[in-house]
C-alpha cells in the first residue's frame, strides 16, 4: 500500500517468523496443559455428580417403583410412584427459587447461550445448583438425563477457571466448551464424540468452532480416563458383545428403509421440539400456579404417566434418561405396540418434565426416543419385508444417532458418539444417511433454541467476521462503486479551484501535474483556511495549499487494510492508484463505500435475498 512503511528485510522476517512459531508452540502447549487439568477436574466432577444421581435414584423412584430401570412393576407402591415425582418437582422449584437461579432445564442450551451472548461466562454457583436440582429431579422419577446438566456443570467449571486466570473472552469461550466436553465424555464414555459435540452444537448448520477442538479433545480424553479409572464404566450403553458383533449394514437393499427412518425421525423430532416449546409456553401462562410450584405439577403428570405406561408395558419405563430403554430396544425384547407407546410416552414425559421447569437434560432422552423409534421401524419393516432379513437392533442403534443428530444439529458428533457408546462401527453408512435425511428436513427448528445459523450470525465472532470479510475483499471489488475523481491541476488558481469544488460533490481532490500524475491532495477542510482571501485568489495555486504526502490505495489492497488506513489517517476518502503506476489516479474511494460493500457481502454470506 502506497505511503505505508516498507516491509522488513528477509533476515528480520525470518527472525519474526521463528519468534512467532515459538509463541505459537508455547500457546499450544498452554492449551494442552490447561485442558488436561480441566479434564481431570471435569472427570472428578462427573464422578461426584453421577454418584449423587445414582444415590437419589436408588433411594427415590427406584425404591418406590421396585426397579432401577425407570419402569413400574406390579408390586410397586403406586401412591409413591404418583407422588414422588411431584415431591421432587416441588424440591427443585424451591431450590431454584431460593438460589435465585434462572428456570432452565436444558443444560446444554444454557452453555450455547453463554457462548454466543455472555462471552462464555457461566456463573460458578451453577455447578452446585444444577447438580443438586438435577439429582433430585432425575432421582424422583423425572424424565431427564444427566448428560445435559453435566455439560453445564463442566462449562461452569471451565468458565470459572478461565475467569480466575484472567483469560480473554475468546479463550474463556474455548475453556467453557472444553469443560462441557469433559463432562459429556465422562458420562457417555465417548471421548471423541464429546470432543466434537461442544464445538458443533453451537450452530444449527454444519459448522464447528475449530479453535476449540484441540482443547476439547484433550479435556475429553482426560475426563474419560479419570471417570473410567474411578467408576470402571467403559460404556454408557451396555450392548452384549455377541449382539454388537452381529450388527451389520445390508447394503443397497436396506437403504430405502433407512431413508424412511430418517423421514420419521424428522417428523417425530419436529413434533418433539414443538411439544417441548409448547409445554414451556403453556406453563408460563398458568398464573394460578406459582412458578415455584409448577415443576411439582409437571412431576405429578409424569408420575401418572409412569403408572399408566407401567400397566401396559413390562420393563423399562419413562423415568430417568432412558438408558435402559435404549438397551431393551437394542435387545429386541419389546413388542411392536409397546415400542409405539413408549416412544410417544417418553417424548411427552420429557417435554412435561423440562417444560414445567424441572431440572434434567434432553440429551439422553433424545437418544432413547430415537432408539425406540428405530426399533419400531426395524420391527415393522421386518414384518412387511421378511425377505430382507433386517436387524431391528441395527435400526435401533441408527435411530438413536439419527434422531439426536437432527434435533440437536450435531450430525458428525452424533454419528461418532453412538458408534463409541455402543462399540459398533459397522453401521456408520446408515447412521450418516439417516442423520443427513433428518438434518435436511429439519432446518427450521432445533432442540437448543440458543443456537445460531453459523459464525456469521454469532455475536461471539462479530469482530473476527469484520476482519475476515474485509480481508477477503479487495479495492478492485468496489471500484465500480467508487466515484470518478475530480482532478485538480497543480497550477490551477484558488479562484478556479473554488469554482470546481463548488460544482463537485467530493470532499477530497487529488492534485495532478502536467502529465496527469498524482502530486498531492487537498480537502474541503484545507480550503476553509484560505477561501476568504479573495485578494490573492488569482495568485494562489493548488500546489500552494495541497498536501504532498498522499495516502493512496491500489486495486489489489484488501479492504481490511483500507479500513485501517481510513482510521489511522482520519480521512473519509482515499485516491485509488494503478498497481503499475502509483501516480495514476483511477478513482476516489469513500469510507462509506467500504461499509456498503461489507454489508452486501455479509448479506450474501448469510444467504439473505
In the CATH hierarchy, the architecture of the largest domain is Orthogonal Bundle
Q: What oligomeric state do these chains adopt? A: single chain
What's the CATH C level of the largest domain?
A: Mainly Alpha
Shape: elongated
Tell me about this structure.
Helix content is 62%, strand content 4%. The protein has helices at 10-59, 61-65, 78-99, 107-117, 126-139, 147-164, 169-188, 191-201, 213-231, 241-246, 252-285, 294-312, 323-331, 336-355, 363-384, 392-408, 411-422, 428-441, 462-471, 494-502, 524-528, 542-545, 559-569, 591-606, and strands at residues 488-489, 508-512, 518-523, 573-577, 585-590. A three-stranded mixed beta sheet has the order 1-2-3. Strands 4-5 form a two-stranded antiparallel ribbon. 49% of the residues are buried.
Outline of the structure:
It is built from 24 helices and 5 strands. The chain has 609 residues and is mainly alpha-helical. The protein has 2 domains: 440 residues, Clc chloride channel (Orthogonal Bundle); 135 residues, Roll (CBS-domain), CATH 3.10.580.
List the helices and strands and how they pair.
Layout: H1 10-59, H2 61-65, H3 78-99, H4 107-117, H5 126-139, H6 147-164, H7 169-188, H8 191-201, H9 213-231, H10 241-246, H11 252-285, H12 294-312, H13 323-331, H14 336-355, H15 363-384, H16 392-408, H17 411-422, H18 428-441, H19 462-471, E1 488-489, H20 494-502, E2 508-512, E3 518-523, H21 524-528, H22 542-545, H23 559-569, E4 573-577, E5 585-590, H24 591-606
Parallel strand pairs: 1-2
Antiparallel strand pairs: 2-3, 4-5
Helix pairs in contact: 1-5, 1-6, 1-7, 1-9, 3-5, 3-12, 4-6, 4-7, 5-6, 6-7, 7-8, 7-9, 8-9, 8-17, 11-14, 11-15, 11-16, 11-18, 12-14, 13-15, 13-16, 14-15, 15-16, 16-17, 16-18, 17-18, 19-23
Amino acid at each position: 500500500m502506497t505511503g505505508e512503511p516498507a516491509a522488513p528485510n528477509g533476515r528480520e522476517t525470518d527472525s519474526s517468523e521463528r519468534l512467532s512459531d515459538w509463541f505459537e508452540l508455547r500457546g499450544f502447549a498452554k492449551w494442552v496443559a490447561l485442558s488436561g487439568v480441566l479434564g481431570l477436574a471435569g472427570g472428578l466432577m462427573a464422578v461426584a455428580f453421577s454418584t449423587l444421581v445414582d444415590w437419589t435414584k436408588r433411594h427415590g423412584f427406584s425404591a418406590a417403583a421396585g426397579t432401577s430401570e425407570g419402569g413400574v412393576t406390579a408390586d410397586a407402591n403406586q401412591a409413591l410412584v404418583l407422588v414422588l415425582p411431584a415431591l421432587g418437582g416441588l424440591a427443585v422449584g424451591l431450590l431454584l427459587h431460593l438460589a435465585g437461579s434462572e428456570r432452565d432445564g436444558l443444560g446444554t442450551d444454557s452453555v450455547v447461550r453463554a457462548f454466543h451472548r455472555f462471552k462464555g461466562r457461566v456463573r460458578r454457583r451453577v455447578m452446585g445448583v444444577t447438580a443438586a436440582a438435577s439429582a433430585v429431579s432425575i432421582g424422583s422419577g423425572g424424565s431427564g438425563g444427566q448428560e445435559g446438566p453435566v455439560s453445564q456443570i463442566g462449562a461452569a467449571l471451565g468458565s470459572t477457571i478461565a475467569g480466575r486466570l484472567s483469560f480473554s473472552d475468546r479463550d474463556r469461550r474455548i475453556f467453557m466448551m472444553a469443560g462441557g466436553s469433559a463432562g459429556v465424555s465422562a458420562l457417555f464414555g465417548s471421548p471423541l464424540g464429546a470432543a466434537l459435540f461442544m464445538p458443533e452444537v453451537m450452530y444449527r448448520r454444519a459448522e464447528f468452532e475449530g479453535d476449540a477442538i484441540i482443547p476439547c479433545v484433550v479435556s475429553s480424553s482426560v475426563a474419560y480416563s479419570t471417570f473410567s479409572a474411578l467408576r470402571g464404566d467403559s460404556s454408557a450403553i451396555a450392548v452384549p458383545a455377541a449382539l454388537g458383533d452381529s450388527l451389520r449394514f445390508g447394503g443397497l437393499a436396506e437403504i430405502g428403509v433407512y431413508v424412511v427412518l430418517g423421514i420419521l425421525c424428522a417428523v417425530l423430532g419436529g413434533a418433539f421440539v414443538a411439544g417441548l416449546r409448547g409445554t414451556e409456553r403453556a406453563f408460563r401462562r398458568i398464573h394460578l400456579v406459582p412458578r415455584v410450584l409448577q415443576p411439582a405439577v409437571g412431576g405429578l403428570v409424569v408420575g401418572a404417566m409412569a403408572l399408566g405406561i407401567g400397566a401396559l408395558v413390562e420393563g423399562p419405563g419413562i423415568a430417568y434418561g432412558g438408558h435402559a430403554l435404549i438397551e431393551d430396544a437394542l435387545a429386541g425384547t419389546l413388542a411392536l405396540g409397546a415400542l409405539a407407546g413408549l416412544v410417544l410416552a417418553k417424548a411427552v414425559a420429557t417435554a412435561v418434565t423440562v417444560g414445567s421447569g424441572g431440572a434434567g437434560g434432553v440429551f439422553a432422552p433424545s437418544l432413547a426416543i430415537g432408539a425406540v423409534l428405530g426399533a419400531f421401524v426395524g420391527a415393522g419393516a421386518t414384518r412387511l419385508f421378511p425377505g430382507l432379513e433386517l436387524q431391528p437392533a441395527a435400526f435401533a442403534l441408527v435411530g438413536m444417532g439419527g434422531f439426536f443428530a437432527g434435533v440437536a444439529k450435531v450430525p458428525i458428533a452424533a454419528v461418532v458418539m453412538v458408534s463409541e457408546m455402543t462399540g459398533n462401527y459397522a453401521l456408520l453408512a446408515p447412521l450418516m444417511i439417516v442423520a443427513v435425511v433428518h438434518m435436511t428436513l429439519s432446518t427450521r427448528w432445533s432442540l437448543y433454541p440458543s443456537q445460531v445459523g453459523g459464525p456469521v450470525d454469532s455475536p461471539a465472532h462479530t469482530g473476527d467476521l469484520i476482519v475476515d470479510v474485509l480481508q477477503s475483499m479487495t479495492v478492485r471489488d468496489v471500484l465500480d462503486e467508487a466515484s470518478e475523481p475530480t482532478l485538480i491541476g497543480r497550477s490551477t488558481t484558488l479562484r478556479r479551484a473554488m469554482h470546481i469544488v463548488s460544482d463537485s460533490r467530493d470532499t477530497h481532490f487529488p492534485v495532478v501535474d502536467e502529465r496527469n500524475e498524482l502530486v498531492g491532495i487537498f480537502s474541503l477542510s484545507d480550503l476553509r483556511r484560505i477561501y476568504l482571501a479573495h485578494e490573492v485568489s488569482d495568485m494562489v495555486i493548488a500546489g500552494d495549499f495541497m498536501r504532498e504526502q498522499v495516502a493512496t490505495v491500489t486495486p489489489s489492497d484488501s479492504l481490511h487494510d483500507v479500513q485501517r488506513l481510513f482510521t489511522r489517517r482520519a480521512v473519509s476518502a482515499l485516491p485509488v492508484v494503478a498497481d503499475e503506476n502509483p501516480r495514476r489516479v483511477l478513482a476516489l474511494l469513500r469510507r462509506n463505500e467500504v461499509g456498503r460493500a461489507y454489508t452486501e457481502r455479509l448479506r450474501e454470506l448469510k444467504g439473505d435475498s
